[in-house]
Design goal:
Elements lengths: L7 E6 L2 E6 L10 H16 L5 E6 L4 E3 L24 H8 L1 H10 L4 E5 L2 E3 L1 H8 L2 E5 L3 E3 L13 H9 L1 H10 L3 E2 H6 L5 E3 L4 H13 L3 H13 L5 H16 L2 H12 L9
Helix pairs in contact: 1-3, 2-3, 3-4, 5-6, 9-10
């Protein structure tokens, strides 16, 4: 299934939905139409009981995603005569409705999301990869925190993500200097889950997605939410979240299947609900 003009290809195989950023002419950079397509696909994946895991990748072997396609400006309403081209609020609105919304869609997707980083992940594209729950990266590529080189501050939820992944001092090193991060270093710093040969990125990511898709889908959704919220909550709120998460999961058919399989000493067969 293709999304048409947006340059995003969406295909489902079994219980795994694959979202391919297919804009090779701009190294898989995303304009606002492409971002909205990705956001919609992730929202639909959450609601679709037939989808139990998601893979995000880029077409070709040069780029996973190189951030924003600046050739296509974010649409703004017509301005009255005499108004400046950029009114105060336009930039922050475009950020919140643009890349921030895309990253949030990955974080809030109820199904586990695997990034298959087959090429360079630069700028907001790096943050798109790091927002995923599992990150498989080609040993031949790199992460590129390009912001300081362009004289801009990091956006697309990057400071939020990186501070939680690597801590404030390492995040400062990454953003203040803006040096490329080769795959081996990204793995050493805990930014990615696995580093594999370029020819194995998609097969590895798909195998992991298949494994996740065979798991207890609702339990995975609750686990993902608990972990994503853990550093934002005080102890009482975190433990309350945990208790209610257990309440939700223990009423699922998969939880009952897990108990039965344990008692009967057999492999589980989870349905996803």
């Amino acid at each position: 299934m293709s999304s048409g003009e947006s340059g995003i290809n969406i295909e489902q195989s079994g219980a795994v939905l694959t979202i391919t950023l297919d804009r090779p002419d701009v190294h898989n950079a995303l304009d606002w139409r492409a971002r909205e397509t990705v956001v919609a696909a992730l929202g639909e994946a959450s609601a679709n009981a037939g989808v139990r895991a998601v893979v995000i990748t880029g077409s070709g072997d040069r780029a996973f995603c190189t951030g924003a396609d600046l050739r296509v400006p974010f649409p703004v309403p017509d301005k009255p005569e005499g108004a400046p081209q950029r009114v105060q609020g336009d930039v922050s609105r475009s950020v919140m409705k643009g890349w921030q919304q895309t990253i949030v869609a990955v974080l809030d997707c109820e199904k586990p999301v695997v990034a298959a980083v087959n090429g360079i992940a630069a700028g907001a594209g790096m943050h798109l990869a790091l927002a995923c729950d599992v990150v498989v990266m080609s040993e031949a590529t790199k992460l590129v925190p390009v912001f300081v080189r362009r004289g801009i501050a990091p956006d697309a939820a990057g400071p939020y993500l990186l501070t939680r992944i690597v801590g404030p001092q390492r995040a400062k090193q990454i953003y203040l200097f803006g040096d490329d991060i080769p795959a081996a270093q990204a793995y050493e710093w805990g930014l990615v889950t696995e580093v594999v040969p370029a020819t194995e990125v998609m097969t590895t990511a798909t195998a992991l997605a298949d494994r996740l898709a065979s798991g207890p889908t609702r339990a995975l959704a609750v686990t993902k939410r608990l972990l994503n919220r853990a550093l934002d909550l005080d102890r009482d709120a975190a433990l309350t979240d945990e208790a209610w998460g257990q309440e939700l999961v223990m009423t699922s058919e998969d939880a009952q299947e897990g108990v039965r399989a344990f008692i009967e000493r057999r492999e589980t067969s989870f349905k996803g609900w």
